[in-house]
Amino acid sequence: MKFLLDTHIWLWSLLEPVKLKPNVIEILQNPQNELFISPITIWETLILAEKHRIELNPSAQEWVTEALKHSPVQEIGLSNAIALKSRLIVLPHQDPADRFIAATAWEHDMTLITVDEHLRKSTQIRTL
Predict the structure, then answer these.
(1) How far is it, in rounded angstroms, from Cα 100 to Cα 70?
(2) Do 50 and 82 meet the contact criterion of CB atoms below 8 Å apart?
(3) Where are the strands (E) in the chain, listed by range?
(4) Overall number of domains in the chain
(5) First-to-last CA distance in the chain?
(6) Is the pLDDT of residue 89 over 80?
(7) Dist. CA 112–CA 101, nearest whole Å
(8) Which of 3, 54, 78, 88 is deepest in the core (most CB within 10 A)?
């Protein structure tokens, strides 16, 4: 199966795996599953580091580069279709990062792994 990881799920998997539920850990560890992140996840990660909400060493950029090399996720690109769907998806807020991540899951028919209740309420995407 194909799964898109929300930003916090990707970060927890690398920095705080104890925050992950057992079913999520099983999905992440199953080699038959394909795991993806959006470039928006990288952008959000860098912003979290800039705001000192997470600490990434030696620098945020270097940490992300290394994390991508060692994490089992693949980066999925942005596209015009995703941009269009980011405005069509029904969400209770206008957060651009959430809209792009949800639209990516919708466009590529992936299950989005998230704990974000706003995203979980969307009827246009599957969530876990």
Answers:
(1) 24
(2) no
(3) 2-5, 34-37, 73-75, 111-113, 126-127
(4) 1
(5) 12
(6) yes
(7) 8
(8) 3
Is 77 a domain residue? Answer: yes
pTM of the full structure: 0.91
Using an 8 Å Cβ cutoff, are 42 and 49 in contact? no
Q: Which structural domain, as residue segments, surrounds residue 93?
A: 2-123
**Cα(8)–Cα(86) distance, integer angstroms:** 19
Burial 23-60 (b: 16+ CB within 10 A, else e): ebeebbeeeeeebbbbebbbebbbebbeeeebebeeeb
User: Which has the closest alpha carbon to 89: 69, 75, 106?
Assistant: 106
CATH number (domain holding residue 77): 3.40.50.1010
Average pLDDT along the chain: 93
- Look at residue 28 and tell me if it is in a domain: yes
92 vs 4, residue with greater confidence: 4
Sign, Cα dihedral of 41, 46, 51, 55: positive
The label of the residue with tokens 């999520």 reads: 24
The pLDDT tens digits of the residues spanning 33-86 come to 999 999 999 999 999 999 999 999 999 999 999 999 988 999 999 999 999 999
Domain-located, residue 128? no
